[in-house]
């Protein structure tokens, strides 16, 4: 409930910021982007390896000045994971060496600082809603992952005309383990992407 309230507050703040940017003559642009996720689910019962996945979505640029703005996005993010040989030790009802995918609808809202036109440093929160999970980790078929995720991310973006090339580090702040409280699982990894501004 707290995450939902925080997400609504952040979205409302973004819409307010857009209104102020338009009144103050700031720039507003939208575009699309796609790239790769190199992620893992961090936890004792999870294999400590980063696995390749995908990301695709849309972004908006709301610039208050030449240097300062925000960049809200709507993204489809894929996190791949694999359970370790210790999974069954911690969860006797569980299954070892399971590979699976977590597909999230993610909404990052990033503060953007551009000391020069070609480069932007970005930092902010990300809210994620789990769309599906293709593997059950528990023999009774019970879902193992929570539906919501909250992360922090930061990175660098190159701005070459309307083209965007960027990289980010994402660290999960909430426990996504929905089995019990024996251990915490958190999403963690790197994103790289290529985007283009078309408005």
Annotate the secondary structure layout.
Layout: H1 2-23, E1 28-42, E2 51-63, E3 68-82, H2 87-90, E4 99-116, E5 119-133, E6 148-160, E7 163-172, E8 186-197
Antiparallel strand pairs: 1-2, 1-8, 2-3, 3-4, 4-5, 5-6, 6-7, 7-8
Task: List the keywords.
Porin, 8 strands, 2 helices, 8-stranded antiparallel barrel, 199 residues, mainly beta, 13% helix
Provide a short characterization of the protein structure:
The chain contains 2 helices and 8 strands. It has 199 residues and is mostly beta strands. It has a single domain (2-197), classed as Beta Barrel (Porin), CATH 2.40.160.
Overall pLDDT score: 87
Order of helices and strands, N to C? HEEEHEEEEE
Helix content, binned percent: 10-25%
Catalogue the unreliable spans.
16-22
Tally of DSSP β-strands: 8
Estimate the strand proportion.
over 45%
CATH class: Mainly Beta
Largest beta sheet: what is the strand line-up?
1-2-3-4-5-6-7-8
CATH topology: Porin
User: What would you call the structural class?
Assistant: mainly beta
The tally of helices reads 2
- Envelope shape: elongated
CATH architecture: Beta Barrel
Main β-sheet: number of strands, strand sense, barrel status? 8 strands, antiparallel, barrel
What number of structural domains do the residues give? Answer: 1
Domain Outer membrane protein beta-barrel: 20-176
Keywords: Signal
Pfam families: OMP_b-brl_2
Protein name: Outer membrane protein beta-barrel domain-containing protein
How is this structure best described in words?
The protein is mainly beta and 199 residues long. The chain has one domain (2-197): Beta Barrel (Porin), CATH 2.40.160.20. Helix content is 13%, strand content 56%. It is built from two helices and eight strands, in the order H-E-E-E-H-E-E-E-E-E. It has helices at residues 2-23, 87-90; strands spanning 28-42, 51-63, 68-82, 99-116, 119-133, 148-160, 163-172, 186-197. Strand 4 and strand 5 (119-133) form a beta hairpin. Residues 16-22 have low confidence and may be disordered.
